[in-house]
Each structure stands twice: as structure tokens, then as C-alpha cells.
Write a structure and sequence with these properties.
2 domains, five-stranded mixed sheet, 497 residues, disordered N terminus, 25% strand, eight-stranded mixed sheet
């Protein structure tokens, strides 16, 4: 379905409703392992931006949640129920509604459907004429690519679920996308009305208290709203962040704190706003398409990972050391590698007497420490294999239960003035977004993942050759052919905008 109009009159309305979980909560979901939902650090929101121009209506909704289906606390029927209520109450077509999850790990309220509809109704009640402008900002200090190409040719990733690979095995790092895509809406008197900004980074840093939080995207939006005219609403659209973590995500020497990162993103967005000029009119266009993607047969990858698991188990060797004896030895042999077992004069004395008792002891201890460390590395690798094997088995079961070879996804194309957006329900890798931006005919093209559904990770074809080695290529339903099909369809949509 396609709708578009061009006139001098663009109207917009905004609405916001608090969706922070306040009722007592118990969850065993590992997504919330580091979050205490009963401790509220900052509020979570659903926000609605309603745009109208002639016969065209577009509803952009952002939700401070990990996803709007499959994972987290929002149920799978959420999107359908929201669309049904908006159609019944406001005569808004389902294809005009775009809902993007920030992908933060905040815990939301149970009546999220009603509150989402309430936010849209607020927006519809107070529509005002607006001017529109679009542009870009830059922020490269707050994120890093979590996939690590290894000297073996495989790839690892940085997760809290398992250990990092040894430093001497890491060959390179992947790309990031520092671009902030921005829509600026102003009232006729020049006051800023709303800001939409698109950026690629997992908002999963957390806060020192461990409390419920909208994470870095929530803090960024607060900075923008505090620095703009009173009543301005900021809308964060998650980009292609599947393999993009907050910087220093694995740091163990200071509390995890998303607020400084969010502040930087918010300030970088504000800096860019100064150069974005607005004008009346501009094209409002929304396109909604369906696409069938091939489901993967994960049986070979599961078998390969089982074989690797057995090989790793069999490679574990016996050693006389345990953790209690290994740690003090490790300290001694690092502190004084030439004379670790006693003061240096004893080594000199033995040498004069023609004995090498301490040297023999050191050789034996170094051999035992090497064996112990090799076992540790093997056990770390086993932990990763076990976790990624669990993901592969889960998705193979889902694909078998589906009873069909494809999975249908919804793609949206949205144009607001010169700002052009294409969306996808999966977690897209950053390279997919970079490639689509480069191939698009529009200079200001942006890509939003986790929108209008959720189908887990959708790594590139190249990344899928690494099945079982990282989360993105294991936590995935689709076959490698998905990428070419999606990018072709997305470019078709972009050309039509």
C-alpha cells in the first residue's frame, strides 16, 4: 500500500504516556538478569507522532522496550491490537502505523496496548501546522562493534553471557555507523515541536543502581527535550544495531552507566540541529510492503557445534593445580619471572653448588600453569558453544513448528520532507544499514530495525558463515539468502519514496 501527498500544509501532533512497570514484578527472563524492575531509575515512555498532509496519515510510535514481540514483556499480539483500536477509534489504517522499539531492556507495564493508543489519541487531539527540515549529526564515542574477527578466520562477539576471546586471537574490529539521522519539526512561529533521530547502538548499558531504565536512548531524549523549546518531544528510532554495543560494555572496574553515553548522543543531536533549516510543506509519504524470507535449516550447524563441543571436552587435560593453588603461583611468576620461588640469592647459591632444584620446580610449575590456563580457555569456549548451541536449537524448533519454509515480514518506507526511512522487524547488522544508505537514491536515507514486529537477529550472509561463533549468527531464524531478498525490496521501496 502506498499513500503520498504534497502540499504546503503538514500537520503534526505529539503524545507521550508513561509505561514504566510499577506493579510487583518477577521474571526469570535472562534479558532482565541485571535489572531490578522494582527499582525505578528513570521512566519508560511510549511516544506518538501523528503526521497528516492531505489524505495521507502516518503514525510513528516509539516504545522504550526491547521489542514489541517474541522477547521481553510485550506480547506478540501487541501490534495487531494497537492497530485494531486505532482503526476502530480513529479510523487510522493499519498500514499507516509504524512502531519502533528502542531495544532497551526496560520492563514495561502490562497494559501497554491501552497506553499506546492513549498516546496516539493525545497526538491526534492537538494537531498543529509544522515546518520540516532534515539533516545529520555525528557521534562516534559511545559505541563499538561487538563482533571480533579472529586470526583463525572465525568471528567472536562481546557478550555478558560468555568470556571474551584471548587478546592474541583478535585480528580486527568491525565498523560502526556514527551518523545520526534527524527530522526537525517546528511550529509556524519557529519553536521546535518534535525531533526524530535515528542512531545505531544497543541501549543495554544499564545504570549503577541496577534499576529499571530507558538506558542511553532515554537519557539522550531527555537531553534533547530539556535543551529545546518547552513541550518539545524527542523520538529515538533504533537503527542497525545488531552488532553494536555501548563502548566499554565489558568493563568490570567501574559501574555500568548509560547516562554519560546518552548525554553525549543527545548533545551531538542538539549540535546538528543548529544547522538544520525548516520549510513549509515537503512530501509526506508512507509505503507498507510484505516480504517472505527463507527460514534456515539449522540441523547441520547444530551437528557441527555438537562435534566441536565433544572435541573441546576431550581436549581438557588433567592438572595438579586448582584455583586455590593456581592464583598465587600466577602472581609470583608474573611478579618475578626469573626468580619466582624464592629470593634471588637462593637461585645464585644453587647455581654455585651445581644444583637446579628451584629451576626444576619452576619448570614444573610453569607446565602446570600452562595446562591449567589451557583448560580455562577451553572451558570459556565451551560456555560460548553451549550458549550458541541453545540458540540454534531454539530457532530450529521454531522453524520446524512454523510448518512453512518462509517467514513473512513487514517493511515500511516513510518520507518526511527530505528524510527517508526504511524499516525492518529484525535486528540488522550495521553493515546492512551502511550498504543501504550508500545504494539509496536519497542523500538523507536512514534504516530502522526492530520495527513492526520482531524476528530476532538478521546478520549478513557473510556473518552467517560463522554460525555458532557469535550471538547474531546463532540467534537467527533466516537462511543466508534473506539478505539479498531484503536489500532488493528495501531499495525498491526507497526508490518509490
Amino acid at each position: 500500500m502506498k499513500t503520498a501527498t504534497r502540499s504546503k500544509s503538514l500537520h503534526a501532533g505529539i503524545g507521550k504516556v508513561d509505561i514504566t512497570r510499577t506493579e510487583a514484578t518477577e521474571t526469570n527472563d535472562p534479558l532482565y538478569a541485571n535489572i531490578d524492575p522494582d527499582m525505578i531509575n528513570d521512566r519508560l515512555y511510549v511516544k506518538a507522532l501523528v503526521l497528516r498532509q492531505g489524505a495521507t496519515t502516518a503514525v510513528l510510535i516509539t516504545v522504550d522496550a526491547v521489542a514489541i514481540a517474541q522477547i521481553g514483556t510485550i506480547r506478540d499480539e501487541y501490534l495487531a491490537h494497537v492497530r485494531a483500536q486505532l482503526h476502530d477509534d480513529l479510523q487510522i489504517e493499519a498500514t499507516s502505523v509504524l512502531i519502533n522499539a528502542s531495544h532497551c531492556h526496560g520492563v514495561v507495564c502490562t497494559d501497554i496496548v491501552d497506553r499506546t493508543v492513549q498516546a496516539v489519541k493525545k497526538a491526534c487531539r492537538e494537531m498543529v501546522p509544522v515546518k520540516v527540515g532534515a539533516g545529520t549529526g555525528h557521534e562516534d564515542r559511545i559505541m563499538e562493534n561487538r563482533r571480533l574477527p579472529l586470526i583463525s578466520g572465525r568471528e567472536a562477539d562481546a557478550r555478558h553471557a560468555y568470556s571474551m576471546p584471548p587478546d592474541n586471537q583478535v585480528a580486527d574490529v568491525g565498523p560502526v555507523d556514527p551518523e545520526i539521522g534527524i527530522v526537525k519539526l517546528e511550529r509556524e512561529n519557529g519553536q521546535i515541536f518534535a525531533i526524530v533521530y535515528n542512531f545505531a547502538c544497543h541501549p543495554i548499558q544499564g545504570v549503577p543502581s541496577g534499576g529499571n531504565t530507558a538506558d542511553l536512548s532515554g537519557f539522550a531524549s531527555k537531553v534533547i527535550e530539556d535543551c529545546c523549546d518547552e513541550g518539545t518531544m524527542a523520538f529515538f528510532l533504533q537503527g542497525c544495531a545488531a552488532d553494536i554495543n555501548p563502548v566499554r560494555y565489558k568493563d568490570v572496574h567501574q559501574p555500568r552507566d548509560a547516562e554519560p553515553l546518552g548525554n553525549l548522543l543527545g548533545l551531538s543531536t542538539m549540535r546538528a540541529l543548529r544547522d538544520i533549516k525548516t520549510e513549509e510543506g515537503g512530501t509526506l509519504k508512507i509505503v507498507n510492503e510484505k516480504l517472505a524470507l527463507p527460514r534456515a535449516n539449522l540441523t547441520p550447524a547444530i551437528a557441527e557445534l555438537h562435534e566441536k563441543q565433544q572435541h573441546l571436552l576431550q581436549s581438557l587435560t588433567g592438572t595438579t593445580l586448582n584455583l586455590k593453588t593456581f592464583m598465587p603461583l600466577m602472581v609470583k611468576y608474573q611478579l618475578a619471572p626469573d626468580t619466582p620461588s624464592y629470593y634471588s640469592h637462593r637461585y645464585l647459591h644453587e647455581k654455585k653448588q651445581g644444583r637446579q632444584h628451584l629451576a626444576k620446580l619452576d619448570a614444573d610449575n610453569r607446565h602446570s600453569m600452562t595446562q591449567y590456563m589451557e583448560n580455562i580457555h577451553t572451558m570459556e569456549e565451551l560456555t560460548k558453544v553451549q550458549e550458541n548451541l541453545r540458540l540454534l536449537q531454539m530457532h530450529q524448533a521454531k522453524n520446524e513448528a512454523a510448518g512453512e519454509d518462509t517467514i513473512e515480514v513487514e517493511l515500511v518506507g516513510l518520507r518526511i520532507g527530505e528524510f527517508v526511512l526504511t524499516t525492518f522487524p529484525g535486528e540488522l547488522s550495521v553493515q546492512t544499514g551502511l550498504s543501504l544508505k550508500q545504494a539509496s537514491p536519497h542523500p538523507l536515507t536512514f534504516v530502522a530495525g526492530v520495527t513492526n514486529g520482531y524476528i530476532y537477529y538478521t546478520p549478513t550472509t557473510q556473518q552467517l558463515a560463522n554460525r555458532g561463533g557469535a550471538q547474531e549468527d546463532s540467534d537467527c531464524l533466516v537462511a543466508p539468502e534473506w539478505q539479498a531478498l531484503y536489500e532488493s525490496k528495501a531499495l525498491q521501496i526507497l526508490r518509490g519514496l
